[in-house]
Write a structure and sequence with these properties.
Layout (H helix, E strand, L loop, with lengths): L18 E10 L2 E11 L4 E5 L6 H8 L7 E6 L2 E3 L4 H6 L2 E4 L11 H8 L9 H13 L16 H14 L4 E5 L7 H16 L4 E5 L3 H7 L2 E6 L2 E7 L5 H9 L1 H4 L21 E11 L5 E11 L2 E6 L6 H9 L6 E6 L2 E2 L4 H7 L1 E4 L3 H4 L7 H5 L10 E2 L2 E2 L1 H14 L16 H12 L6 E5 L7 H16 L3 E5 L3 H7 L2 E6 L2 E7 L5 H8 L5
Parallel strand pairs: 3-8, 3-9, 6-7, 7-8, 13-20, 13-21, 16-19, 19-20
Antiparallel strand pairs: 1-2, 1-4, 4-5, 9-10, 11-12, 11-14, 14-15, 17-18, 21-22
Length: 524
């Protein structure tokens, strides 16, 4: 054995394991989630799984972790075929998984959650000895967590670290991470992934990580497999690839070359509005959250005509409540909002008069009526106005004709304009909402995570349209948890932390680590 493979001499039941899947398929009724996927994960490596939402990444790891049984094919651990009917068997084989969704016991302390993770807590716990053991264990990790804190007092990033610590404490031989950094700041992400990579390099563990961030793959993974529509379409060493090649593999060569579709001509800055004039002015806004405490505190921001203002922050720092208060889904506790100098309470009539539009997160839930047809959803803004309504009569033929035009212009994949909108995929629902919201003149557009979970073609398309609104003199408030998206699109970036605007910078001068420090609530 070579020196750099420290696991050669260890007994088979400890140290990093080798994982292979052979022709693994998973069918749910007529839907094939995994189609004969063969994957090789070498021991002691960090192996990344990349792919768009719905490509089969989560299904694959759930089969390995015993949460789902594949319909066909096999799983090999250290070269031996294994049946993994449930998570208990997986745990016995040394497989641990950290989820995107938290599985912490809220009423228990960090120490109790760590002990519980083993599932072998004795009836009588010698707390003094256990605490000393846990403290010693924490010393071996880069994370500092208060052993007496309870999860409800922890920020999302700290909860994610605790989920990871729970698994590390059990000394897994294969650690599966499902988008572990979605709630972390860039610094925390580097800390967590750096530690995981060290853990793998030490030969103690093999790591399989699902991510959608190229930067994480390029920096921390040894090998990468790209899944597309349930198939493994690309395997390579990270050293031999680039983000452009990976992107191409994810969407298929044909999709990346598609030119952005011609957009319906955008109007120029509305008459009488000088570029640079303040279009949206938020002053001292307070908004209550669902827990009865302030989710947005004293927030002030201005967006000029012809500008994209980006709002950055880790999920759960008041962004959702801010958007809901601005678009009229949540009451405002204090403060004022003006559009073009006029008070704005987000009523339908004001939206028309002041030309305010919005692209909310989860458009199917927040911007559509699922049972209604595509054409009806596209008419929600102006069904009662000419030309869709003349002399009090609703002209359904005009709704449908316009819907057909928009379906073509926005490349919306649907069975037709009469199909219920909930039958469309996420990207196509978002395009349908875009068609409606971007129609006509726009002074202010409020967009929240507008490309969350969409494929590359849809992302490029939607980003192009947001830029189009800016070029036409509209003001865009873009709230996004994806720093790369903000750095690419915004003119200025404001960071939100714990409901406050804590930092502002022109995007051209923005530095990722500085933004990350403010997102994490640390001021350097």
């Amino acid at each position: 054995m070579s020196d750099d493979n420290p696991i050669g001499g260890l007994p088979p039941a400890s140290g990093a394991l080798a994982l292979d899947t052979y022709d693994m398929s998973m069918r749910f009724g007529s839907f094939t989630a995994l189609d004969r996927v063969s994957l090789k994960v070498a021991p002691g490596t960090v192996h990344a799984l990349l792919g768009e939402n719905g490509a089969g990444k989560s299904t694959l790891v759930k089969c390995v972790a015993g949460f789902q049984r594949p319909s066909a094919g096999s799983i090999l651990i250290d070269g031996r075929e294994q049946s993994i009917p449930n998570p208990v068997v997986a745990r016995g084989l040394g497989i641990g998984m950290v989820y995107q969704h938290f599985t912490l016991a809220p009423g228990m302390t960090v120490a109790e959650n760590l002990l519980l993770a083993g599932g072998k807590a004795p009836a009588l716990i010698d707390w003094k000895r256990q605490r000393a053991e846990l403290a010693a264990f924490l010393e071996t990790t880069p994370f500092r967590l208060d052993l007496d804190a309870r999860p409800q007092a922890l920020a999302a990033g700290e909860k994610q670290k605790l989920e990871l610590l729970k698994q590390l404490y059990l000394k897994p031989r294969l650690l599966i991470l499902d988008e572990p950094t979605s709630v972390l700041t860039p610094q925390e992400a580097d800390e967590v992934l750096g530690h995981v990579r060290q853990f793998a390099r030490s030969g103690l563990c093999t790591v399989l990580i699902i991510t959608h961030k190229f930067r994480e793959v390029m920096t921390y993974a040894d090998d990468v497999t790209v899944l597309r529509r349930g198939r493994a379409v690309h395997h390579c060493h990270v050293a031999d690839t680039s983000p452009a090649l990976l992107a191409q593999a994810m969407v298929g060569a044909s999709d990346t070359t598609a030119e952005p579709r011609a957009t319906p001509a955008a109007p120029m800055a509305a008459a009488g509005v000088a570029p640079g004039a303040v279009a949206l002015d938020v002053k001292g806004l307070d908004v209550m959250g669902d827990r009865g405490t302030l989710a947005v505190r004293g927030l002030s921001l201005k967006v000029a005509a012809g500008e994209i203002l980006g709002v950055a922050g880790v999920s759960g720092n008041g962004q959702r409540e801010l958007v809901e208060a601005l678009v009229g889904q949540r009451p405002r506790a204090a403060g004022q909002v003006h559009v073009q100098g006029q008070p704005y309470a987000a009523r339908r009539e004001e939206n028309h008069r002041l030309q305010v539009r919005s692209l909310p997160e989860e458009p199917l839930r927040n911007a559509c009526v699922g049972e209604l047809s595509v054409a009806q959803n596209m008419a929600l803004r102006d069904f009662d106005r000419a030309p869709l309504c003349v002399g009090g009569l609703l002209r359904f033929g005009r709704w449908r004709n316009r819907a057909r035009e928009w379906i073509a212009a926005y490349g919306i994949k649907t069975q037709g304009e009469d199909a219920p909108i909930r039958s469309l995929s996420g990207g196509n629902v978002q395009r349908a909402v875009l068609a409606r919201e971007l129609h006509g003149q726009i002074h202010v557009l409020i967009a929240a995570n507008p490309v969350f979970g969409l494929d590359f073609a849809a992302v490029a398309d939607i980003h192009g349209r947001l830029r189009g609104v800016r070029e036409a003199g509209g003001a865009v408030l873009l709230i996004s948890e994806d720093l790369d998206e903000l750095l690419e699109l915004a003119d200025r970036i404001v960071v939100m932390s714990e409901g406050r605007a804590v930092f502002e910078t022109p995007a051209a001068q923005a530095e990722r680590h500085v933004l990350g420090a403010h997102m994490g609530g640390g001021h350097h």
